[in-house]
Specification:
Strand content: 15-25%
GO molecular function: ATP binding
CATH superfamily of the largest domain: P-loop containing nucleotide triphosphate hydrolases
Pfam family, one: PIN_4
Family: In the N-terminal section; belongs to the PINc/VapC protein family.
Shape: globular
Strand order of the largest sheet: 3-4-2-1-5-6
Number of strands: 18
Protein name: PhoH family protein
Number of domains: 3
InterPro entries: P-loop_NTPase, PhoH, PhoH2-like, PIN-like_dom_sf, PIN_dom
Radius of gyration: 27 Å
Helix content: 25-40%
Largest sheet: 6 strands, mixed
Number of helices: 14
CATH architecture of the largest domain: 3-Layer(aba) Sandwich
């Protein structure tokens, strides 16, 4: 029961939690800061009905129930007055949690039968809104139709935004920026420059230096030849820029592949640098993410012997109808999902093979012996040592799944995540809450990670035009 005591604070809001919010993020109980939470009895019933099974939803339902149990047990004085969340949340939240402890007279329009769980919760929201007319009473739900129905009844409703890394994915870190026309005038006062065998370095300070991140690429198209570099050191107002290896030149080809545009050159500099342990590549279809990653992997596994083998994995989310169970071993079951791997291996095999058909067959067998395909389902508890791990279609991973995969990396392992956040096939993820968006944002600025968003498609003129107009 929410008492009149709660209505004294007009500034703090009262949020009523729909079941899908708790099943989406059990820690949402601690994500509302100073505001109060209310959990209807129907939400508890639906949690109980969804707790069985091994799915992510069932696990989250059990976790939410356990968290509420811990909160209630930590309040020996009863729950009628609400439970202070300050101690249970370790001061992440300072509001109170109210559980429905009274029978509520449900009044809804005749077209909405109260027997349905959603409508029951809407009736509770309507009751609380009338009880506290001076206080914001807001339903929080991941269900779009539920929010529409609430607004149709004159009730406030919001989506649960706390799991979103960014509100607008246009703000997502791109990994590269163009230098302004006056860059060298404004940053050249105390410029230091030196060379080693292959690269030129610039130490400079100025207004832009503070905003640059570790391993961020910078380019100047007005200079001749064009200036491309990346940030190798950040020390407050001072940064060090290092010129790049030009992988667009045939003499620097990687397994027969050269960069076709500026962003591909940036990507190959990340993929070929042994100091970079974690790489994320974003880009629409046909920008060369998988091809560049595999070419760099094969060069470092077979030529440089830097890694022992390539391991490739991806989420098995079908685009259309599921075709059912697949026969065979783990690798055989994953084969239909790895068409992109086979297509790119064919390209790479054709780019370097000599000796006719026999030579190509031998090279293909050698390459396939060093590329392993693994399923995500069996990753828990594994450690990959000295491996080149490729996570394809990473936009379909949740942040929790992404953490599970990236933490598999042992000594000497490089992890590369590929994806296109505009092509999310999982029904429960959005561009803002994808695990790929999550790691791009969280790893920004770490000296041993790098990111680049590939802009130009290089697959074919048909694919490029389709990506633009469809």
């Amino acid at each position: 029961m929410v008492t009149k005591r709660a209505s004294k604070s007009v500034k703090t809001k009262l949020f009523i939690l729909d079941t899908n919010v708790l099943m989406h993020d059990p820690t949402s109980l601690y994500r509302f800061e100073e505001h109060d939470l209310y959990v209807p009895i129907m939400t508890l019933e639906e949690l109980d009905g969804n707790k069985k099974g091994m799915s992510e939803v069932a696990r989250n339902a059990r976790q939410a129930s356990r968290m509420m149990d811990e909160i209630v047990r930590a309040c020996p004085n009863g729950i009628d007055e609400g439970i202070d969340l300050t101690e249970p949340s370790r001061r992440q939240a300072t509001g109170r949690l109210y559980l429905q402890t009274e029978a509520i007279d449900l009044h809804l329009p005749p077209g909405l039968p109260t027997g349905r769980g959603d409508n029951h919760i809407l009736a509770v929201v309507s009751f609380l809104a009338k009880r506290f007319p001076k206080r914001p009473v807001i339903l929080v739900s991941k269900d779009i139709n539920m929010r529409i129905k609430a607004r149709a009844l004159g009730l406030d409703a919001q989506d649960y935004f706390n799991d979103k890394v960014l509100e607008d994915t246009d703000l997502l870190y791109s990994g590269a920026r163009e230098l302004p026309a006056d860059f060298w005038e404004t940053h050249g006062a105390n410029l230091e420059s030196w060379k080693d065998e292959r690269h030129t370095y610039y130490r400079l300070r100025g207004p832009l230096a503070d905003s640059l991140s570790h391993n961020e690429f910078v380019f100047d198209t007005t200079s001749e030849p064009p200036f491309d570099a990346w940030v190798t050191e950040c020390d407050g107002p001072t940064v060090v820029l290092e010129t790049l290896t030009d992988f667009s030149h045939q003499k620097n080809n990687i397994w027969g592949i050269t960069a076709r545009n500026r962003e591909q050159n940036f990507a190959l500099n990340l993929l070929m640098n042994p100091e970079i342990d974690f790489v994320t590549l974003l880009g629409q279809a046909g920008t060369g993410k998988t091809l560049l990653t595999l070419a760099a992997g094969l060069t470092q596994v077979l030529d440089a012997k830097r890694y022992s083998e390539i391991i490739m994995t991806r989420v098995t989310v079908p685009v259309g109808e599921d075709i059912g169970f697949l026969p065979g071993t783990e690798e055989e079951k994953m084969t239909p999902w790895m068409g992109a791997l086979e297509d790119n291996l064919d390209v790479l095999n054709g780019a370097t093979s000599e000796g006719g058909e026999w030579g190509r067959a031998a090279a293909h067998d050698l390459i396939r012996s060093r590329v392993k395909v693994k399923s995500l389902n069996f990753m828990r508890g594994r450690t990959f040592i000295n491996k080149y791990l490729i996570i394809d279609e990473a936009q379909n991973l949740t942040p929790k799944q992404m953490k599970t995969l990236v933490t598999r990396a042992g000594p000497g392992t490089k992890v590369v995540c590929l994806g296109n956040i505009a092509q999310i096939d999982t029904p429960y993820l959005t561009e803002g809450s994808s695990g790929l968006t999550f790691v791009v944002d969280r790893f920004k600025g770490w000296p041993h990670s790098g990111h680049i968003t590939l802009q130009r498609g290089e697959r074919s003129r048909l694919a490029d035009h389709a990506a633009e107009v469809l």
